[in-house]
Amino acid sequence: MIELSDVSYSYPHQDRPAVTGINLKVSPGQAMLCTGASGSGKSTLVNLLNGLALHFYKGRLTGLVRVMGIDTTRLSLQDIADRVGTLFQK
After folding, report:
1. CA 12/CA 82 separation, integer angstroms
2. What are phi and psi for residue 78, nearest 5 degrees?
3. Is 46 left (phi over 0), alpha (psi -120 to 50) or beta?
4. Cβ 4 vs Cβ 24: under 8 Å
5. Which of 73, 82, 58, 59 lies closest to 4, judged by CA?
6. Contacts of 16 (CB under 8 A, 6+ apart)
7. Does the global pTM surpass 0.85?
8. What is the largest CA-CA distance in the chain?
9. Beta partners for 61?
10. What string of pLDDT tens digits covers the 90 residues of the chain?
């Protein structure tokens, strides 16, 4: 399960948030497609789910991101990587 509750995220040294007010729930067995224009926050959404936003880029997160029912702020990047994979297009 993936759950985002009132999530906003700002990358370091940026004046405005990359995403704001995201509420999303994906249950086991569901598939989700995320589309949008360049700069709309698709990559930021992926980085919130795979832990890179908080643990690598070290930006500012408000709200709650849960993967498999666990708050990602309580997990290391390795623990998140054990649960989440990212597949990029070629």
Report:
1. 26
2. -65, -40
3. alpha
4. yes
5. 73
6. 10
7. yes
8. 38
9. 9
10. 899 999 999 999 998 999 999 999 999 999 888 899 998 999 999 999 999 999 999 999 999 999 999 999 999 999 999 998 888 776
Whether residue 64 contacts residue 3, with contact meaning beta carbons closer than 8 Å, is answered with yes
63 CB burial (10 A radius; 0-12, 13-18, 19+): middle
Let me know if 82 is exposed, middle or buried by CB neighbors in 10 A (0-12, 13-18, 19+). exposed
* Rounded-to-10 torsion of CA 24, 25, 30, 33: 10
Core vs surface per residue 4-29: b (16+ CB within 10 A) or e: beebebbeeeeeebbbeebeeeeeee
Cβ count within 10 A of residue 53: 26
| Residue listed under structure tokens 């007010």 | 21
